[in-house]
Structures are given as C-alpha cells and as structure tokens.
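note to self: dont lose this again. the chain is below, predicted strucutre after it. 130 aa total, dont forget to put it in the shared folder this time
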Amino acid sequence: MKVLNTPPRTDQLVTPDGLPGHRLRVVFYVLLCVAASLIPPVLEIANYPALESETLDFVRALGGLLALAILTLPVGIVPIALWVLLVMQGIATPFEAVGALLPVFVFLGYKQWFVWIPKLALRRSKAAPR
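---
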C-alpha cells in the first residue's frame, strides 16, 4: 500500500497563487463577466421583452446589471451604486453605464474571489487550533 505524504494542515495544501489552474479560473471568470455585460445588447437584438416604452432600455440594462451583480456579490454593490448614480444623473444611458462599469465589476470580483477570500480562508486555517 502506498502512503501519501500530505501535510497535516490545510493551509499547507493550498496557497492563493499556487492553485493548479488558477490562471484558467481567472480567465473563465473574466469571460463570464464579459458575457454578462453582453446581456443588454442581446436582449435588444432579440427584442425582448416586447414592450413599447421609454423604460425599455432601463429594463434590458437591468438584466446585465443583475448578472454582473450576482457574479460579484457582495462587493458588486459598489458598482451598482455607481451605475445608479450615472443613470439617474443623466451622465450615461443604462446600456453605456453597464459597459463603462464592466472593468470595475471585473476588478472588484477578481479581488474578492481570487485574493481576499483565499487570504481570509488561509488566515483562519492558520489560526485554527491544532
């Protein structure tokens, strides 16, 4: 029988930068965010929902905003607040605001899922009693 030489503590098994496939996961996350930002134009091309009103762009943009918010929750609240500010002040249309805030969503989501949470998990596992 082969004996595996594994470390006794979980923090020795994984480090945030040393995960196998880390770069692939980051690229996949960025592609998911880009795909989510394309929801409003796709809804417009598909003419969905088939409503005739001035708020139609707003409703379609909310689809992309909701998808991006789900991918970046809870730090996604910051770009959502910026989106509301941009749209309500008339600085940008709902479509433009979703596209303009895509880098903010991606950056904050990356920091949350690939930097802050792994560091917090490692810190807690190091502090755990042995």
